[in-house]
Each structure stands twice: as structure tokens, then as C-alpha cells.
């Protein structure tokens, strides 16, 4: 779906809104211990992070993932109870989301619900990231049925306060009706060379920044400030920027979002507590 041009009065510069990180999926904690440790560090402005074991929850509980999930849960509890005053962003977010691959609408409903139950039972996740979510109008009813069921499962669990969080991983601007199907939509996922010239869909101006996320790879350190200006201009409240590149487009080992960017400390300081660019 092509990006649309927003009128001047529809564009939003959310100067008073603080950006935070959405992490679409670090590598397994054994392969990326530093990445998972950084997510639990006090003061990391984390909205949510995705746990993906084997394109889903895997066939059995993974002890390393259980440990990583527990650390994030404990960090959020400390923030919620005021024990970590620097974790203001985490206190309003900080959830671990289970990865559900919708395969652009091709995966059976029962299969997805079975994966969701495993995530809840094993890892006590606080929501779901629906990867490869369809964006067309025809598949919206099926997605709404799925998200309604997921919200009910999360509400029944003791790990997801407020019914948990659902994020639709479109990677582009979907049909506007999807905005009512979940808590947040990923409306951009791709390279900096596309992002810096991208335009926002007009209908997104009807929603606050916390409803949208942008994931951008190949962002040079020298363009970090510009990238954050684009995110604010387009009304995205959640971001993940990295200087890593997607070399082959699909290989999990070359996933640019699977590891920390080389400028991690700098971007944390730029959008951390009390920082606004």
C-alpha cells in the first residue's frame, strides 16, 4: 500500500510525547545476552519487546527464555511500584509480547490460539505481536476475531494487567479499520533510505502517537536526530532504529533488528527520561 501525503494541519509533531522502544525481536537470549540484559536495565525507555523462540513459542518452555522473561517482568514490577524512579517509560509499558506469525492471514485461527496459550502458560507474557499481519480490508474481520480472542485470553491470565497489549505488525499503512482492532500498529518497517522520504497516511492524524510504531534499519549515527524528527512528525510514539542492514531480506541470522545498534547508549540517552529532541 503506498504512503499517502497528509495535509499540513493533519501532520503532528508530538513534542510533548516521549518516544520509547518497541523491540521487534532480539535473537535467542543465548545468542544475544547483552541485548536482553540491556532491556532490563533501569532507565531503558522500553514500551515492549517481542519474545520469539521458533517463529512462535517453540515446542516446550525454554529455560533461557524463561529467565529473560522473568528479568523483564521483575524490571516492570519495580518500575510500577516506584522502586526504579528512572523507569518512567517502562512503568507505562515495559511488556514482553509473544510473537505470533499470521503469515499475511494464511495461518489457521486454532493454530494461532494454541501458540498464544503456550506463550501465556509458559512465559506469562503481557501481550502479543502479530507479525506479518495482513493490511487489506478483506482480512480485517478475521484479524478482529483473532485480536478479540487474544484480549480475552490475556484478561483471563494473571500476567497481563489491563488486558495486555496487542501490536499489529503490518510494516505499512493498513486499511484504517485495523486501528480499532488492536492497541498499536506498525505502519513502517524498512530501510532508512525509504523512511527519510516516507509520508504518513492522512487517517493516522485521528489517533495519538502511542497508536503507531516505526522500525527502521540502516540509520547512520549522523542521521539519528533526523530519524527521530521524522518519527515525531509522522506521529509515531514507539520506534526501533538501528544502523544494521538487512543484507538478504529474510534470513533470521541477518535480521537487522535481532541485535543492538552500535549507537545503543546514545539513542537511549536521547530518548530516555526527561529527554526530548
Account of the 3D structure:
The chain is an alpha/beta fold. It is about 30% helix and about 15% strand. It has eight helices and eight strands; from the N terminus they run E-H-E-H-H-E-H-E-H-E-E-H-E-H-E-H. It has an eight-stranded parallel β-barrel, surrounded by four helices. Helix 4 links the parallel strand 3 and strand 4. Helix 4 packs parallel to helix 5. This is Spherulation-specific family 4 protein. It comes from Streptomyces pakalii. InterPro entries: Spherulin4. It holds the Pfam family Spherulin4.
Summarize the entry for a quick read.
30% of the residues lie in helices and 17% in strands.
Q: Tags for this entry?
A:
alpha/beta; 8-stranded parallel β-barrel; 17% strand; disordered N terminus; Spherulation-specific family 4 protein; Spherulin4
% residues in beta strands: 15-25%
Question: Which segments are poorly predicted (pLDDT under 50) over 5 or more consecutive residues?
Answer: 1-16, 248-252
Total number of strands = 8
Described by the principal axes of the CA atoms, the overall outline is globular
For the record, give the distance between the C-alpha atoms at the N and C termini, rounded to a whole number. 30 Å
User: What's the mean pLDDT score?
Assistant: 89
Order of helices and strands: EHEHHEHEHEEHEHEH
Organism: Streptomyces pakalii
Pfam family, one: Spherulin4
Protein name: Spherulation-specific family 4 protein
Amino acid at each position: 500500500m503506498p504512503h499517502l501525503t497528509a495535509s499540513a494541519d493533519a501532520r503532528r509533531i508530538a513534542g510533548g510525547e516521549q518516544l520509547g522502544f518497541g523491540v521487534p525481536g532480539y535473537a535467542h537470549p543465548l545468542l544475544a545476552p547483552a541485548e536482553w540484559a540491556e532491556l532490563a536495565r533501569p532507565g531503558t525507555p522500553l514500551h515492549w519487546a517481542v519474545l520469539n523462540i521458533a517463529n512462535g513459542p517453540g515446542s516446550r518452555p525454554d529455560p533461557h527464555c524463561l529467565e529473560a522473561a522473568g528479568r523483564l517482568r521483575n524490571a516492570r514490577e519495580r518500575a510500577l511500584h516506584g522502586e526504579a524512579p528512572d523507569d518512567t517509560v517502562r512503568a507505562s509499558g515495559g511488556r514482553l509480547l509473544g510473537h505470533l506469525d499470521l503469515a499475511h492471514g494464511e495461518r489457521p485461527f486454532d493454530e494461532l490460539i494454541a501458540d498464544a496459550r503456550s506463550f501465556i502458560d509458559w512465559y506469562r507474557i503481557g501481550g502479543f505481536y502479530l507479525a506479518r499481519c495482513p493490511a487489506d480490508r478483506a482480512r480485517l474481520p478475521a484479524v478482529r476475531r483473532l485480536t478479540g480472542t487474544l484480549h480475552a485470553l490475556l484478561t483471563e491470565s494473571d500476567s497481563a494487567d489491563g488486558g495486555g497489549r496487542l501490536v499489529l505488525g503490518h510494516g505499512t499503512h493498513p486499511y484504517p479499520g485495523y486501528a480499532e482492532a488492536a492497541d498499536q500498529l506498525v505502519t513502517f518497517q524498512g530501510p532508512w533510505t525509504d523512511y527519510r522520504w516516507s509520508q504518513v497516511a492522512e487517517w493516522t492524524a485521528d489517533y495519538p502517537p502511542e497508536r503507531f510504531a516505526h522500525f527502521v534499519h540502516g540509520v547512520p549515527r549522523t542521521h539519528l536526530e533526523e530519524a527521530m524528527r521524522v518519527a515525531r512528525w509522522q506521529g509515531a510514539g514507539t520506534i526501533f532504529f538501528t544502523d544494521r542492514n538487512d543484507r538478504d531480506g529474510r534470513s533470521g541470522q541477518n535480521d537487522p533488528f535481532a541485535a543492538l545498534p552500535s549507537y545503543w547508549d546514545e539513542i537511549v540517552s536521547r530518548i530516555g527520561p526527561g529527554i526530548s529532541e
